Structures are given as C-alpha cells and as structure tokens.
C-alpha cells in the first residue's frame, strides 16, 4: 500500500538494519518463550524440567550466535572466502525442527496441534553459511506455524533435483492470495500488523541469492503454502537418490 511505501522510504539504512536485528532477536526468543511456558505449565517430572531447560539453553545459544553474526555484519567484516562450509540441508532441517518443537508443543497443549512430516533426501548438500541457512529455515517454519492458527500439518522436505540441493517448507494453513504472493518477498511487507516485521521472507530471498540460489512460493488460499529454496548442489561421493517426485504427495500450486 501507499502507506507502506512511505514507511519504507523513511527508514534509513540504520533503521532497516535495526528492524532486521529485531526480527532475528524475536526469532531467537520465540522458542525460548514457548519452552519457558511449557516448563511453567507442563513439566510434570524432573526429566521434563531438564529437557525444557536444555531446550532453552540451546535456543539461547543459537540466539547468541545470531547476535555475533549481526555484530560481524555491522562491523562490515567480510565473510572471508573459504568461510563457507558444506551444509547438509537435512541435518539443518532436523536442527530447526528440534529448535521449534517447544512452539509446537505449546500449540498441542492448547489443542491446536501442528503435525510434522519429514521428507529428507540424503545428499541434499550445498556450500554456504550454515547460520544463514538455518535462519532462513527458521523463518519459513515460523511463518508456517503462524499460517496455521488452528493447527495443521507442517512438511519439511529436502531433495536433490538436477544440480540443485533443495529445501521446502509446506503448511496446510491459510495460504496467500495472488496479491500477497507477489509482494511476500518485499522487505517490510506484512499482513500480520504489529506482530509482523515483513522481514522473514525478504531475508530468505537474500540468503538464497547470496548462495546463488532461488526462492519460490506456491500457495492456494485456504489450502496452504509451500516455499521452496534451491541451492547449488555440492556433489557428494554417494550419488543415486530417489527421484523426489516419487515421494511427493499432491502439492499446492
Ligand atoms: P512477517 O511474517 O513478519 O509478516 P514475512 O516476510 O515472513 O514477514 O512474510 C510476509 C507476508 O507473507 C506475511 O505477513 C504473510 O501475509 C505472508 N506469508 C508468509 N509466509 C506465509 C505462509 N506460510 N502462509 C501464508 N502466508 C504467508
């Protein structure tokens, strides 16, 4: 809208950076808050208390790593060539699902359960910055959960397609209208009012581009959304992977 365009122009580079930092801080805090809620209301045994405490620590560590990353960015330290490593998308996806489990557990405790389906392919490996790719996945999973206020199914898929290593996050949520889909990657575009920053998908897009990859959205209003990110495949020793189409259920388009 016009109002958003005005707002966008007003934001200085510093303001944009601050908004980005706030977004990342929020992303780190959400799993911590959910785990603390569960610790307060649903930890029935000493083991459960320890488990939630571990989750809080792990989420806080990832938050701290994010803060260091932002710090490096502010100081304009170059991501030195060779600083990138082999990234196994399936391992990262598992890590992100683990990290966001408290958010989903909180939902099930409120009978708005988010079911998880994992469809991982071996060898979905790229080269890049694992912190960034983790942040991208976290944004996608967060959006998928937001899109299913009454619960639903979250499918996280990794695959090898031609010379691409792919990761896709799908939900059975509210979906996007064509208008929203067209603008979804724009920085500061949000339909979530004060709760949204409009930076999640913009960050996903930027991360995909920096890794010489792409990000695409397929969505059907009322049915659900899939965001697919493709990275250049890092050829591993073991070839032969199942054609991903063979294990795909019908996808929204
Ligand atoms: P934010 O989540 O802060 O609004 P994003 O850039 O992540 O910012 O998303 C922009 C907009 O795209 C959201 O406000 C929402 O309208 C739409 N969107 C993103 N992901 C989904 C999804 N999984 N399902 C439905 N709509 C989505």
Automatic annotation (TrEMBL):
<feature type="domain" description="Histidine kinase">
    <location>
        <begin position="20"/>
        <end position="235"/>
    </location>
</feature>
<protein>
    <recommendedName>
        <fullName>histidine kinase</fullName>
    </recommendedName>
</protein>
């Amino acid at each position: 809208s016009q109002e958003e365009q005005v707002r966008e122009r007003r934001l200085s580079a510093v303001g944009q950076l601050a908004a980005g930092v706030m977004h990342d801080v929020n992303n780190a805090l959400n799993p911590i808050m959910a785990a603390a809620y569960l610790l307060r209301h649903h930890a029935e045994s000493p083991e459960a208390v320890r488990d939630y405490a571990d989750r809080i620590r792990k989420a806080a560590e990832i938050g701290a790593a994010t803060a260091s990353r932002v710090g490096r960015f502010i100081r304009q330290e170059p991501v030195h060539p060779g600083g990138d490593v082999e990234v196994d998308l399936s391992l990262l996806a598992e890590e992100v699902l683990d990290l966001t489990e408290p958010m989903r557990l909180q939902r099930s405790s409120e009978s708005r359960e988010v079911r998880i389906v994992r469809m991982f392919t071996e060898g979905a490996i790229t080269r890049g910055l694992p912190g960034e790719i983790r942040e991208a996945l976290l944004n996608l999973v967060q959006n998928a959960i937001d899109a299913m206020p009454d619960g639903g199914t979250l499918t996280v898929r990794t695959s090898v397609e031609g010379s691409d290593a792919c990761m896709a996050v799908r939900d059975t949520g509210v979906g996007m209208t064509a208008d929203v889909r067209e603008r979804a990657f724009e920085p500061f575009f949000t339909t979530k009012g004060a709760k949204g920053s409009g930076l999640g998908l913009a960050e996903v897009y930027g991360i995909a581009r920096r890794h010489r990859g792409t990000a695409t959205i397929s969505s059907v209003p009322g049915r659900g959304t899939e965001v697919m990110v493709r990275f250049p495949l890092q050829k591993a020793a073991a070839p032969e992977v199942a054609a991903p189409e063979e294990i795909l259920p019908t996808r929204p388009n």
